[in-house]
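Example record used in the benchmark description.
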Amino acid sequence: MNKQTKILLIILVIGFSTLLYPSQTQTGNLIGRVIDAETSYPLVNVTVLVKELEKGVYTNKKGQYSIMNLPVGNYTIIFQIIGTNQQTKTDIIIRSNRSTFVNGELKRKAIQIEGIKVETSYFAETEEQTISIVSFSNEEIRRAPGSAGDVSRIMMSLPSVAKVNDQSNNLIVRGGNPMENSFYIDNIEIPNINHFPHQGSSGGPIGILNVDFIQNVTFNTGGFSAIYGDKLSSIMEIDFRDGNPNEFDGQIDFSWVGFGGIFEGPTSKKSSAMLAIKRSYLKYIIDAIDVGTSIAPEYGDIQGKFTYEFNPLQKLSFLAVFADDHNSPDQKNAMENYMSHYGNQDLYQGTYGLNWRAVWNESTFSNTSLSVTSSKYEEDYWETFKEPVSVVPDIKNRTNELELKLRNVNFRRISEKISLDFGFDAKHLMHDYDNFLAESTNSIGDTIPELSMKHKIRAEKLGGFVSLNFNPFPKFSTVLGLRADYFSLNENVTLSPRFFCKYKLNEKTSLNGSIGIFHQNLPLLLLSQSEDNKDLKDPFALHYIIGIEHLLSEDTRLVIEAYQKNYSNFPTDTNQPGFFVIDDNFFNNYENLKDDGQALSRGVEVILQKKLAERIYGLASAAYFRSSYKSYDGIWRNRNYDNQLIISIEGGYKPTPGLEMSMRWIYAGGVPYTPIDEQLSEEYHQTVLDENRINAKRYPDYHSMNVRIDKRFFFNKTNMVIYASVWNAYAQKNIAEYYWNDTDQTVDEVYQWTFLPILGVEYEF
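Model output (structure tokens):
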């Protein structure tokens, strides 16, 4: 019996043995607040109903409610009051001797459509603009197979996200690029939410954020509101919950990503705090499990939130997220793991900020944040398959980035049919570079002269926006937005108009459409390499989206969307006229960049989503799309992340309140790659690509299955979750890349994760 079979049997034994675990009689509490989804004003006399028990209460004048001594288990909570759209929240876990906090947000309804019966829905709208938006709750993220609690990895089940490599959680949205995404936590922008961040981009291998802090995640994959700027593809909004204001709670976690703990509780009558700490221990287990590498990086993070509530209408919160990452593969390990470089890597990143949420009256509220983000890169690398000729590294990166940010977002309801979103954001950038690139050979065998960067860059970004929400008829609503941005480094000024409309055919079916322009500044790492680069135009994208949404039942919906994105002003390299700079490594010596690159992405997506109304939940999706680019030579080619076809099936079953079994299967077409020129590779003793066949071939199709079993134990005063998961359960050998093996003088392949078991424990006290 092989190792994979043994681990699968252990997981199955754990799962089926827990079916015999007796039901518990312990109880917990349900506490929360209900507000107007648009103005954040507390709502009085809202009915809060526990569906399974048909037990409910009303909110008080502060919008607060509490339901005490509920039997432990899994519940569905319904918020409803006349004049608003009902909101239903699933996967609410009541735990022994603890309080579960669930807040409701109810949106005012338009005038009732005569002759139409209003149906209960688990997908009630809380946002004005609803196209290309998917939301996930805390529990949906925590339990997702193949995510390991990583917010970015759960998005891999969506048809909008390309599937490229298991070792990275890069979000490549609708034919875009990882640098085209932005993340906001409680109105504070965080450039990257991953350990070992890709400089100038938004990806990495492992997420930072603690899933137990997350209340809700909203992922917008296109056509997003004018309140967001400087990104071309997607916006992820993450809401952190507040710490428990009534009692002290703790939690200890052990899993493959590390060990850590969470501590929270009141700090005064009006304030609360929570703190999470995590450290990795991969170096202690890397030899015990064959995951395709003998390299054990070290990393850790600290995150916390402090909240002071002056009154139900005024709240000040402080957010802190810090991470440090370290990796030092030697030359031998680099060779064994097919790495092009080896050396030392020490990274530090942190975001710290205040957010003031003020509800001025029943029609107006504002969110104002002041934050600072710092990133420090200390990296020294040598080429793996070349003996070092000096102690000076081939790549030296000493980057310090500091950004001060001010952001203000306001909402004003003018009438039942008209409302406004408006505000501004401002950034002061201080980037210091002391970087060096030795003379080298690029991917097509040409010599690149050395690059030395010693710059202190100071620049400002300013943006202003206004968005008019107009509902002229009960069945029809529109959003018309305009955004203006200024970048002092190149004095570029951009205008970004955006339009969204929605027509309700009936209470179950709606048609949606959106068109808009989106601009983004190029990374300072690229612009700072030469004075000429600062004159490059800002890339922009024109989004066209049309879709239909139909409610098949109260817990199941079908969404079909078609989109097209036209990109312009991308940088191109005259020395490599066929390659697309922004999709390759832009930390390079680019001497002659132009801004005439173009790209095109178009596709159709289908999502069938079932919420956990009873014991079964699931999400099935499919996408057919094409993404291409035109670089300096004027030839259209397939873009690096062009899967063409993606199919995903994810779901789970809860036979008892404390047991859950889930799986996720993904199929994706192989992405393009440029074949290796074997003759030149042998001559240069490194991988050299065939410039005449750029992205002319495709990797084999990708497919993989992840499975997971969760078991909850409810004790008298504590709780515990034990979970067992396997990534790539049937050990499919998906190819990550081809490379030139100079030792064997042949082309070899690097595989993605073939079989990865994960065990974890969460203990609450």
